[in-house]
Amino acid sequence: MARKRKPKQQVLDFPQWGGARKGTGRKRAEHLGGVPHRSRDVKAGGHPLHVTLRLRRGLPSLRTKAAHRVLLGALTTGLCRFGFSVVHYSALSNHVHLLCEADGKSALTLGMNALMTRIARRLNRLWKRKGSVFAHRYHCRALSTPLECHRGLAYVLGNPSRHGIHHPGGIDPYSSAAWFEGWDPPIGSSAPPEWTIPLPKAKTWLLREGWLIHGRLPRAMGRSLETLNASRGKCMRDRRLPERPDRDGPPRTARRTPAPRPSSR
Q1: DSSP sequence for 69-130
Q2: CB neighbours of 107 closer than 8 A, spacing ≥ 6?
Q3: pLDDT tens across 14-70, in order?
Q4: Which whole-number Å values give the CA distances from 240 to 22, 128, 199, 243, in the listed order?
Q5: Where are the chain's structural domains?
């Protein structure tokens, strides 16, 4: 008699769609990495903000008299609207650094959207083109301590020197360095007439006078930020007290080897 076989469940292979595959996903619009879409940490009426705007590839430089005039006009138009204001700026060939103040996250959003729209429209009119001007969304970082504000001011106002661009007297004409009052030594009244268009004064304590705790900025901003930090660290090391040795032994910093315990036997 033939033996009955146990029924066996067959496996049906269905085609699989989706999942992690090479070459999938949204393609980057620019060769440079964009700013991630994360929530911005902006406190209401609190800390100054360091904002960076980067232009698309292939656009003309911002460091021309015509482009700088357009950029400065866009910055000075609609001052202090929506609780947002720009205190300092620095224009490079393909990006702009801003030091801003905002009353909150909504003020930052409204103010930056209006500012980027003004800049894009005016630059397109100047360059006789259409389309987007900025590569991606702006990068924003809150400056929450006097040291961060000091470094932020040194970075923004001395940014051209980091790219190998130096000017007589350490004052970049394509920035707000001309009316900055924290230089050492001060500029005085020798600034050209076209530099007398100021941006709003700082309202926050950190950007107004809190950063002065760490000293004024040298006008010879050819030194990079790393050199400033290194010199500051050397001054802090020189201020430390010398190590005091013990009376009958090595200095206190040296670790002593404990004496062996006598055996109980």
Answers
A1: HHHHHHHHTTTTGGGEEEEEEEE-SSEEEEEEEESSHHHHHHHHHHHHHHHHHHHHHHHT--
A2: 82, 83, 84
A3: 666 666 777 777 766 555 556 766 666 666 567 899 999 999 999 999 999 999 999
A4: 56, 60, 41, 9
A5: 49-238
Distance CA(76)–CA(196), nearest Å, equals 12
Peptide bond just before 218 cis, omega within 30 deg: no
Helix (H, G, I), strand (E, B) or coil at 51: strand
Topology of the domain comprising 49-238: Alpha-Beta Plaits (3.30.70)
Rounded-to-integer distance, Cα 158 and Cα 225, Å: 8
Return the CA Rg of the chain: 29
pLDDT of residue 226: 46
Q: What is the distance between the alpha carbons of residues 146 and 214, in angstroms, rounded to a whole number? A: 8
The residue whose two tokens read 């232009």 is 55
Q: How far is CA 201 from CA 14, 68, 89, 91, 94, in A?
A: 67, 21, 13, 19, 26
Q: Determine if the pTM surpasses 0.90.
A: no
Q: β-pairing, 217-218 with 183-184?
A: parallel
pLDDT per position as a tens digit, 144-177: 999 999 999 999 998 877 777 777 667 888 998 8
